[in-house]
């Protein structure tokens, strides 16, 4: 059985159930790299230039963790999944960049996703990918349809049950999970999933908030309509794919009555520097919801994250006490 490696980084958090369903539907075995460690990051960083963004360094580390353990590695080039809305350039050249910086990488299964080139081209790309496993077009079609269904169920599970991507993936694997957002006071996290859910690079942000007694809300728990409405209110026409995760969720949660919003960005990320700034300006303009921006990089110390988090939560508590006093 062909063993397909999937790096636990970047697009993994958005598409893993779909990819797994597709490859398993074609008779392959799927293998995911282990969770990020300091060694994963160090290995990835050693292969790319210093000013590469943190998530791409982590991605390279995960690819290295799969070398020698699988027959091929799946690395898609995701250009656009909505008309005239584009991904960050790092995703466009991901397969080529990986080949260049990790020459010992096993064969890379790539697929070029660009919805602007039309559906016919998309189907050709899916078929080209499936042909690595089967020459039967009907089998590839069935696997693709099952994969799409798995993706829809995954998205609906996160929205309907208030689950973060790692918890939804655990639920789909049969593990027990609890929603992050219960009836508790909630803090909303906004940003890319590969920053919010990689516990090593964000120093267990979700866990720390839950330990402090807060429910955690995330971009994936919002419906496409909620995200679109918030983007339209804030920026008008979206241009970047990631506007949903940052501007859409930020705009929505700032007006939803949460206790606070934390925006997580990667140092050196061009798109984020613009998008998070828009959310921050909106937070200042509204003046109703405390907002904190947390920048992560390779050398971000755990103590720094903890201190900023404690100060933010402390500020929220003091604000609440003051409001209560004014109401008496
Ligand atoms: S959006 Fe930013 S953090 Fe994500 S891959 Fe692109 S540059 Fe890196």
Structure explained in plain terms:
With 328 residues, the protein is α/β, with parallel strands linked by helices. Helix content is 51%, strand content 12%. It is built from 14 helices and 10 strands. A 4-stranded parallel beta sheet has the order 2-1-3-5, covered by helices on one side. A 4-stranded parallel beta sheet has the order 8-7-9-10, with helices on both faces. Helix 2 (38-45) packs across helix 3. The radius of gyration is 20 Å and the shape is globular. The termini are far apart. The mean pLDDT is 91. The structure holds iron/sulfur cluster (SF4).
Number of strands: 10
Order of adjacent strands in the largest pleated sheet: 2-1-3-5
What helical percentage do the residues reach? 40-55%
Largest sheet at a glance?
4 strands, parallel
The H/E string reads EHEHHEEHHEEHHHEHHEHHEHEH
Distance between the termini: 69 Å
Radius of gyration: 20 Å
Mean pLDDT comes to: 91
Which stretches are poorly predicted, pLDDT < 50 over at least 5 residues?
none
Number of helical stretches of at least 4 residues = 14
Shape, per Cα inertia axes: globular
Query: Which range does the strand content fall in?
Result: 5-15%
Task: Give the bound compounds.
Answer: iron/sulfur cluster
Look at the helices and sheets and give the structural class: alpha/beta
């Amino acid at each position: 059985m062909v063993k397909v490696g999937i790096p636990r980084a970047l697009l993994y958090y958005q598409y893993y159930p779909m990819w797994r369903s597709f490859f398993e539907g074609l008779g392959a075995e799927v293998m995911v790299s282990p969770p990020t460690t300091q060694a994963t990051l160090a290995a990835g960083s050693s292969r790319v230039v210093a000013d590469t963004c943190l998530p791409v360094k982590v991605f390279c580390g995960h690819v290295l963790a799969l070398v020698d353990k699988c027959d091929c590695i799946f690395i898609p080039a995701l250009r656009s999944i909505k008309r005239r809305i584009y991904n960050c350039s790092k995703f466009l050249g991901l397969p080529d960049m990986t080949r260049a910086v990790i020459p010992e990488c096993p064969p890379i299964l790539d697929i070029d996703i660009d919805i602007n080139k039309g559906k016919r081209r998309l189907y050709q790309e899916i078929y080209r990918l499936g042909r690595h496993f089967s020459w039967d077009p009907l089998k590839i079609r069935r696997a693709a349809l099952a994969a799409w269904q798995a993706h829809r169920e995954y998205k609906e599970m996160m929205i309907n049950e208030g689950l973060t991507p790692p918890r939804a993936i655990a639920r789909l694997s049969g593990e027990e999970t609890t929603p992050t957002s219960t009836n508790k006071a909630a803090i909303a996290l906004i940003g890319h999933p590969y920053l919010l859910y990689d516990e090593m690079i964000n120093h267990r942000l979700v866990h720390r908030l839950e330990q402090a007694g807060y429910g955690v809300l995330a971009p994936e728990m919002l419906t496409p309509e909620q995200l679109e409405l918030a983007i339209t209110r804030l920026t008008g026409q979206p241009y970047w794919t990631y506007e949903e995760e940052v501007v859409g969720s930020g705009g929505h949660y700032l007006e939803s009555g949460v206790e606070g919003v934390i925006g997580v960005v990667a140092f050196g990320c061009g798109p984020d520097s613009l998008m998070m700034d828009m959310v921050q300006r909106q937070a200042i303009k509204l003046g109703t919801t405390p907002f904190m921006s947390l920048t992560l990089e390779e050398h971000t110390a755990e103590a720094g994250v903890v201190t900023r988090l404690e100060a933010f939560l402390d500020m929220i508590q003091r604000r609440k006490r003051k409001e209560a006093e004014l109401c008496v």
